[in-house]
Amino acid sequence: MLGAVVSLIVVVAAAYAVTQVGGVITLLFIAAVLFLAYRRLSLLAFTVTFTVLFAAYTWLGAPAGVWKGFLGVLVALLWLLNVRPLRKAVITRPFMKAYLRLLPRMSQTEKEALEAGTVWWDGELFTGAPKWEKLLAARPPRLSASEQAFLDGPCEELCGMLDDWNITHERADLPPQVWEFLKTRGFFAMIIPKKYGGLEFSAYAHSCVLAKIASRSGTASSTVAVPNSLGPAELLNHYGTEEQKDYYLPRLARGEEVPCFALTGPRAGSDAASIPDTGIVSRGVWQGREVLGLRLNFSKRYITLAPVATVIGLAFRMFDPDRLLGDKADLGITCALIPRNTPGVSIGRRHFPLNVPFQNGPIQGKDVFVPLDFIIGGPAMAGSGWRMLVEQLSVGRCISLPSSATGAAQAGVWATGAYARLRTQFNMPVSRFEGVESLIARMAGLTYTMDAARSVTAGAIDGGERPSVPSAMLKYHVTEMGRQVANDAMDVHGGKGIMLGPRNYLARGYELVPVSITVEGANLLTRNLIIFGQGAIRCHPFVLREMTAARNPDRSAGVDDFDRALFAHVGFTISNAVRSFIMALTHARFTRAPVQGATARYYQHVVRFSASFAFAVDVAMLSLGGYLKKKEGLSARLGDVLSCMYLASMVLKHHENQGRQELDLPIVEWACRTLLYHAQEQLHGFLRNFPNRLLAGVMRALIFPRGRIYSAPGDRLGRKVAELVTTPTEARERFGQLIYRTLHADNPLGLLQEALLLAVQLEPLEKRIRVEGVNTGKVTALDLPGRIQQALAAGILSETEAAALRDYDRKVMDLINVDDFEPQELAAQAQPAARSSAKFA
Ligand SMILES: Cc1cc2nc3c(=O)[nH]c(=O)nc-3n(C[C@H](O)[C@H](O)[C@H](O)COP(=O)(O)OP(=O)(O)OC[C@H]3O[C@@H](n4cnc5c(N)ncnc54)[C@H](O)[C@@H]3O)c2cc1C
User: Fold this and answer.
1) Are strands 311-319 and 278-286 parallel, antiparallel or unpaired?
2) How far apart are CA 132 and CA 783, in angstroms?
3) 0.85 cut: is pTM over it?
4) Of 277, 360, 525, which is best to mutate to test ligand 1, by the most ligand atoms within 8 angstroms of its C-beta?
5) Average pLDDT estimate for 158-164
């Protein structure tokens, strides 16, 4: 409301000004000053230009007394602000003192999380003026010949071996031959360097392998993801001693060791840094010799691969109460490798994660003694565990879950697009009903976004980035989009999606969704605490500089750095306020776009939201300080705006990487519109809930002077998108590029495509039956087989045509049919000897 009033006052004042003597010159003066702020000049350049403008304005426009006086004072102040010793004494020092008092205390753990990884495109989005060249210049990710051969060879072969019903229902495990294949063909060695016998794949190739397997079996993709993610191989690779690497990496690469990584326990889930598991430095006997080591006591749960693991990457808190290593008693979180058969380790029992039975279970350790050499990186790395984890998380979190979710979503779009075309109700393919169309459009648009985020970010990792904030954005948004796609696929399939059995190709993927939501940073926590909480400090061009300067023990150097950062920051905020206002007023029409054509507008809108976001962030941080961390509702919304801009940028870059496919434009448009609309709504939600209503009003006036005018994709666009994936187009082919779609009797994705091609090819015959048979009364049967028979008898179809249609109908019904069972077949086969734990003891 206040925003609308402020906007109205500005418009009325401007209208009034032009009716007055010198009004036009006044407006020109104001426009010139706004332009200077928009162009983000340095303080000195701004002061000089402003002074010249003021002189010209005084001479030509004869401004009124008070107004002229105000501007005169402003000029004087600007010149004084350029005298650094003066401004340091009067402004910077007192401000820095107050700032230090407000600055929340930061634990070492938080500091390490903040410093982990690199700042990439996420940093540009915080500037309010992202430099697109930086993103567009990046080389599109490509597979090497050997990576492509792995996808076409072992990966394809693996998918052919997987029978998901047998795995999930009959066996509750992968069959032995699949385990053997995974271990011996390098599936657990994608991130291990070649010199240790690993595959040393690029992040992009690693991601493609996971996506392909996920399109076939969630159990298999979860099994493959873990050894290639945060865990023993990754940690050894980066921090292990040469001896540890030489011993373990070749064994892991050959599949002789199966790793797991145990951090979570019953008392520490999301707040993983608070693990109560301990390792006490003490003397003990190892292989008959007395050595200095660790006595470990721990209780872990939810650990993927634990039941079959041979080596456990264990995180615990290390203490040295007798000061055997130095003068520090609490050394902090440490990671060690513990062989499975170490005395005191209890391992082997299984959890049962939502009917998707990848190996997962608890591990306990009671007085487990291991030498200090078992610490990853040796005793020198005692206490560095948390840093190791957060540093490596920035890569793994971009790959494992986003890739698996994308592969599953691509399979979902592929299957649903075809199924909706094949399934007819009310004498029409259900794909043609607007309600179904809108869901299919959403599935396609979200899946395109997921794939764009996955592949462009993997490309950035291969280019040397370790994008920590984007890894959190991908983890959250790609898995949430996957959840939406899974829901939509189930809705469009109706009962076919619900009836479990060998013919059901959707339900296990649907059941797996909450797993992807929970692991590697549960989504609620990731959205509310991590994306913005970490992003705001890490990616902001000035905040980390200011914090570091304020904490600098060298006071004079600290004040100097703080002063530079502070004044650049003030200019930055003013400039973003002006940029936000002007771009919102003009709907970013005059903003520079790095490309021409249909996508140019989306680049412009991203820049506009970037300026509004950067301005809102500064106001929020300045007015709420450390309290913003507690106001999760606000920081999560700001995180959403950042994520939407990031994802829209990924979509635009992906479109470029794929050679600007004209046919994909409706999908690109749907994705960008949806994301930018969401950015607008989240900014609106942020302003609605901002506690200081006056500041909220000022922000609203500068961010939404014309209201919320950005609109979500319309139905016509949705229809175009749905059409692209419910018919055999090149755009549909691109959705199917990675997934397992080989045509054979056990692969529904291959069979659906075969039937879809037939549906299009035989459509004229169906039409002929309708027009020449049903409409003339020659064909009266209610089902297709009866109609084919009557049309053949009436001479409407030839024998060959009738046979083709019968074959098609059989294929379609084979896909539409569901399983049924004898009642006793559904009872669980194995009877537990004794229940291990009472329901609630
Ligand atoms: C199938 C599966 C496999 C796993 N594999 C492994 C593994 O291999 N190794 C391993 O160490 N761990 C593993 N985990 C553990 C996983 O990382 C944890 O489940 C996760 O960290 C969440 O912990 P929690 O389940 O105890 O939830 P809790 O910590 O109890 O959280 C409950 C809810 O509160 C939310 N929440 C918590 N704090 C906040 C906050 N500040 N703001 C907003 N929301 C918040 C969470 O997001 C969550 O939704 C696995 C878990 C599952 C389910």
Assistant:
1) parallel
2) 57
3) yes
4) 525
5) 97
